[in-house]
Amino acid sequence: MIQTAAATESQTAPAQTGRTGPSQRLVKWLGYWCLSALIISAARIWLPQTGEFIGNLWWTASALLLASALLDFTTGCRVTGLQGLRRLPSNLALGVRNTARLTLRNSGPRTLVLQVSDSIPQQLGATGLPCSTQLDPDQEISIEYNLVPHRRGSASFGRIEVLANSPWGLWQTRVWLGQEQTVKVYPNFLGISSLQALSTEQSLRLMGLHQQQRRGEGMDFRQLREYRQGDSQRQVDWRASSRLHKLISREYQDERDQEIIYMLDCGRRMRAKDGDLSHFDHALNGLLLSAYVAIKQGDAVGLHSFAAARESNGGQLPPVKGESAINLLLNNVYDLHSGTGSADYTGAAQQLLAKHKRRALIILITNLRDEDSDELLAAVRLLSRNHLVMVASLRETSVDKLLQQPIQSFDNAVNGAAARDFLRRRAQLLQHLQAHNVIVVDSRPELLHQSLVEAYWRLKRSGRI
User: Fold this and answer.
1) How many CB atoms within 10 Å of residue 144?
2) Largest Cα–Cα separation, the chain
3) Which of these CATH numbers, 3.20.20.150, 2.60.40.10, 3.90.230.10, 3.40.50.20, describes 7-21+79-186?
4) DSSP run (H or E) holding 96
5) 309 and 264 in contact (C-beta within 8 Å)?
6) Dist CA 449 CA 207 (whole Å)
7) CA distance 306 to 5
8) pLDDT tens digits for 109-129?
9) Across-strand partners of 145?
């Protein structure tokens, strides 16, 4: 089961003291000192007697400033007894706000005035830091700040960074606390977590799908039960009925132990964005939610990605089933990223056929264009020899928006005509796929999970898988 509430905590480690430098207060005082030196130099020229007296005072004040700075540096350059821990969620979901907590404890002899920051990875956005605080001896405080992941993969935190003021605030010493930590940023799995405690029918209803249960129309025997009005005559188990002296019906369920393999296009087209997420991230969200529904139905789910970025790991998973399957799938795709190359549908189909011989439902998730027609049809023909094929294509909502714009200029007219031509040729490609007995799903990116689940459920109920 997916764990979303668990947290990971950095281990206690000795504080590392860095460079001590002047604070803003000392820099400001030095600025005043320089300005006063210029004023006194001018006073000596225009008012010699008064200027001499003021000059003596200036030298006295300068000596006091220097002595104060040296004394403050001597007593404040060492920061002892300061400890820090960082507490993070054990895993993060893309685009979801999470809370991190820094715990600081002062076991030293003096009060510390601190400016607290953290070494946050670039792929995470943070709010609430840096902040200022004061720690008395033997006092412990907690500081919370928000994290919002912008990119999947491993996120590596450095040590907690603190600027500790000297007793008079003239110097600041940089101190590193805690230890480095690494957490994984997954696709948005919170939708899956919300479905775990629900039945299949409740899960479908939560996703906006309303499927009516059908009794006794599956292929796998489930149980014997009393006859109900509406049961067909072929459901009646006459032997059990004669033994119990009442009508008994057989109840069937949809076939289990089927294989569903997702072919995920990681090519450059999947980098297109609709909203905050790319098409690729929308595809991952739809893949995971529909895979979870299939796993709950007892089917095995696998993954075959192609055209992925070079730095990506994983992306290949043989069909697995059971409660652990969704976690295996999540760990396989969390650091999978779209590449900059073109998708090779035929090559991907050949690789898949070499690995998977048993008949399965192949779901190809991609962003189709009319220029893909020949290569995609060739790949579909290869796959259809042994498998049932579904092509799920993501619609670019930016094209739909062009059609909704009023034609008020020549540029609007040209853009609108180009959008209509693009959609017409794309629709022809989808029709060609349907003519080759390919199941076609054409969906907006944010609704892909609904479309995939609806298509899977329709196939399941029809007995085609």
Assistant:
1) 12
2) 129
3) 2.60.40.10
4) none
5) no
6) 8
7) 33
8) 899 999 999 999 999 999 999
9) 100
